[in-house]
Amino acid sequence: MDLLHYIPKKPFAQKHLLTLQDYSSDEILQVLSCALKLKKELKEGIPHPILAGKSLAMIFTKSSTRTRVSFEVGIHQLGGQGLFLSGNDIQLGRGEPLPDTARVLSRFVDGIMIRTFKQSDVEALAQYGSIPVINGLTDEFHPCQVLADLMTIYEHKGILEGLKMTFVGDGFNMAHSLMIGGSKVGMDVVVACPKDYMPQERVVRWAQENAAAFGRTVTVTQDVKAAMEDADVVLTDVFASMGQEEESAKRLRDFEGYQVNEELFSLAKPDAIFLHCLPAHRGEEVTSGVIDGPRSVIFDEAENRLHAQKAVMALLMKG
Ligand code: CP
Ligand code: NVA
């Protein structure tokens, strides 16, 4: 598959990026293709001021390194400007209603990126505002991360369809978005997690329906060894996500046996690659030997946040 020269089946018709479940397979491939082109141009020193004069409001009610920096640098590289809005500093944090915030920001800027807890808040912004809204992570989904993950997998494997992608860990935002993103591009997806940390049933159903269109499967299991066997791509995430810090000790106990270490990783294919959205807790969900090992592609993955999100902004905000 030559994604750089991907020919769209239909014009890109999305207004927002709330979850990848809203996107067709064709639209996801269009984003990835655009991301590869923008990356190539950037490396060749070719400017691409696609969003000259446009502004992106970036609302954060949770911490961030990658998302904040990659969106802010990305909009700048596209000729526009980003405004970092900490949830504590804007009136939203003092109780100004989300619908009002959405309508006010729509009068000033050309797009909103938001990282917050509730997916329904991201959806409310999209509903009440009149500009594109991009989900920069909620408790349920992290679509920008998974676009970067798919791009990274494509760069290292040359294909997406038919690969086996295994996620080990909490059935939370990363597991959800990986199941959706992977199934939409024709991968076999396996999520291995303890029984009290299963992904939402509705998301599993969506992903299984997506996969069926390719004759592929999405499986949730507690058998971490079987999940790892023959995997082309292995991913994990922290056991305690943002907002769950007080459960850290309990989670460390509950996730015993779910650490991606050298022994577990050796069950995957010999050329399997390892990804982690970061930040990582070495010694907990993954050992240093794996995450800092020769088959880890975590920094390519982090870099690709920039390129993937530039593609999302370009496609949504070009207008
Ligand atoms: N992976 C990711 O979203 O990183 P940040 O929390 O640093 O933005
Ligand atoms: N699951 C993690 C992802 C961080 C990028 C969290 O929500 O904290």
Overall shape: globular
**CATH C-level of the largest domain:** Alpha Beta
Annotated CATH architecture of the largest domain? 3-Layer(aba) Sandwich
For this structure, the CATH topology of the largest domain is Rossmann fold
- The helix content, as a percent range, equals 40-55%
Low-confidence stretches: none
Query: What is the beta-strand fraction?
Result: 5-15%
Content-based structural category? alpha/beta
Written as H for each helix and E for each strand, in order along the chain, the element string is HEHEHEHEHEHEHEHEHHEHH
Compute the number of structural domains: 2
What can be said about the biggest beta sheet?
A: 5 strands, parallel
* Separation, N- and C-terminal Cα atoms: 29 Å
User: What is the topology, as strand order, of the major beta sheet?
Assistant: 7-6-5-8-9
Instruction: Give the distinct bound molecules.
Output: phosphoric acid mono(formamide)ester, norvaline
How many extended strands? 9
Mean pLDDT: 98
What is the CATH H-level superfamily of the largest domain? Aspartate/ornithine carbamoyltransferase
In DSSP terms, counting alpha (H) and pi (I) runs of 4 or more, how many helices? 12
Gyration radius (Cα, Å) is: 19 Å
